Amino acid sequence: MSSFNPTTKTQEALQSALQTASANGNPDIRPAHLLAAILDQQDGIAAPVLKATGVDPETVAREARELVDGYPKAEGANLANPNFNREALNSLTAAQELAGELGDEYVSTEVLMAGIARGDSDAARLLTGRGATYDAIKGAFPSVRGASKVTNQDPEGQFQALEKYSTDLTARAREGKIDPVIGRDSEIRRVVQVLSRRTKNNPVLIGEPGVGKTAIVEGLARRMVAGDVPESLKGKTLISLDLGSMVAGAKYRGEFEERLKAVLDEIKNSNGQIVTFIDELHTIVGAGATGESAMDAGNMIKPMLARGELRLVGATTLDEYRKYIEKD
């Protein structure tokens, strides 16, 4: 397995499987060890992919752990460092082959899960018995990964980026979590009017702190859910982008840009189905930029605004609009 090239999450899963096998006294690492390890991960992609096939990941993880608990136990010096058995090695090989077929440079956890399902182990039978066959898992990749390829060791930040770095305001309105907005009908109508244009359709809400700029956007979300908007906005999704969480934890240069690009790509691929709201709009000027680079969030968003691929509602104060946005 010298050619096996895992992502960070896959490496963690392999290490976790080894530790579990060693702690349980199992003489070798089997596919069930691997399956339990990847489904138990926080922020992993395997569980959402499995869910997309219609199978409950928690149930499969529990049953995989039950398989592991039922394996024979042994005593000896090798238990501290058990080896992969033949079925596990076959799963790793199948995963590496699938990664090459997908154009991925690294083997991610959902690809490893597909490799397990392709085999003839008890873990494979557990997956296929519930309907998560190799083809079903592979077919669920686009719903989670989109058209993205795994080109670095930490691809999870780019998958389901919208779900991680934004809040669906229309979903909150549908669930009754947004209160009615009183006395802002004319402002909401004006926002709807600007959004309905073919070009220059990106309104900015300017006002002092606390006057209710965000409330106007929440009122818009309620109207979109109720269908009280023009045809161009009916059935669309209104999201609030959280730049703070996107910047947080971005340790390496370019990591913020990768996250933002993943979000923008998802918005672009929605074919106009998503309207984006950015509170404190002035923060996009300089967000993610370093001293050596002029590239920031604002410069990444501009081309999409110019081409009409991004419908954006911004909110900021008059002073900050003049200082950061007006001159740009």
Automatic annotation (TrEMBL):
> What are its GO biological-process terms?
cellular response to heat
Membrane-spanning residues where?
none
Q: Which InterPro entries match?
A: AAA+_ATPase, ATPase_AAA_core, Clp_N_dom_sf, Clp_R_N, ClpA/B_CS1, ClpA_ClpB, P-loop_NTPase
Can you name one GO molecular function term for this protein?
ATP binding
What GO cellular-component annotations does this UniProt entry give?
cytoplasm
In this chain, the stretch annotated as Disordered covers: 1-25
Checking Gene3D superfamilies in the record gives: Clp, N-terminal domain (1.10.1780.10), P-loop containing nucleotide triphosphate hydrolases (3.40.50.300)
Q: Which UniProt keywords apply?
A: ATP-binding, Nucleotide-binding, Repeat
Which CDD domains does the record associate with it? Answer: AAA (cd00009)
Q: Supply the Pfam families for this chain.
A: AAA, Clp_N
Q: Which SUPFAM superfamilies match?
A: Double Clp-N motif, P-loop containing nucleoside triphosphate hydrolases
Boundaries of every Clp R domain copy: 1-147
User: Could you tell me which PROSITE patterns the record lists for this protein?
Assistant: CLP_R (PS51903), CLPAB_1 (PS00870)
Q: What is this protein called?
A: AAA family ATPase
